[in-house]
Structure prediction request, 355 residues.
Amino acid sequence: MRPIQAQISIDAMAHNLRVARALAADARVFAVVKANAYGHGLSRARRAFAAADGFAVLTLEEAANLRQMGVDQPILLLEGLFGADEIAACVELDLWPVLHHAAHLDWLAQQPPARPLQVFLKFDTGMHRLGLPLAEQAALVARTRSLPGVAGVTLMTHFAQADEAVGVDWQLQPFLRELAGYGLPWSSANSAALLRFPETRGDWVRPGLMLYGASPFPEVSAAELGLRPAMTLQSEIIAVQALQAGEGVGYGQLFRAERAMRVGVVACGYADGYPRHALTGTPVLVDGRIGRTLGRVSMDMLCVDLGDFPEAGLGTPVTLWGEGLPVDAVAAAAGTTSYELLCALAARVPVAERD
Prediction:
């Protein structure tokens, strides 16, 4: 059997939720489990986050799966309705859709649900992705509250730079100023905002990345935030090559040896979810000690420098990220984000649970 495996810690995920709940104070917590719980598995997330006040997903399919698993907490549809025909499913599954376009209000008016729904009314405060115009808030709030198919309204926005030095004030303050007079509950905090800006808590927070033990901040590690890695991606050395000075390794020969050296070939590649663009120097753990990758990542293999590991050989364990090697460090070296690495874990990689 090919030796690559991802190990998922339910305990670590539950611990990270407790960190989020402590930061949320009196606010309620939606555990964001879209994209197969950031690659960790929806069923595992359901168990790990059983103490969450609600779950946030992207699609009706994810929501239906959670209900079939026995979830009875509120489920938020983050991207809202993709068509008027989904209103009935929201009633059947007791879902809370995000309304971020005027068409959503039209659909609810034209096809009133059999039972009024709790909705989140999302306003664009500067990210310019999803959201209704904040300048039209008076008419939009009034119309939403008047719809017979709406049981309650929570106001919502999303931050573009909560993980950067510029922060959230440029979006948060207009949101609060324009909407404070309605006396409605509100939600704005993602992981970065929850960790750094307590003024964003509102009534509901929406942590995602932090629940899986990664940091949204390039300058602050997950461990410094009190988070534990939930996913560890491991494999083994399946071959060893001896290079002479001037010889290269891998496609394109992007790495050439300056002196005689040993190279380990690891059973992990971009078809497993490891980033192809990770170049020489991306950190790995070879038998528990820090090492580096060499050359270009292949579909099924990558190479590591064994210069500091004379004892390493066939079967030596290699950790690609996780316990002992933060996924954030790997992502930074590869010029990407931990979000991408975790979500990209391929279906062909076996997954096991660990304490």
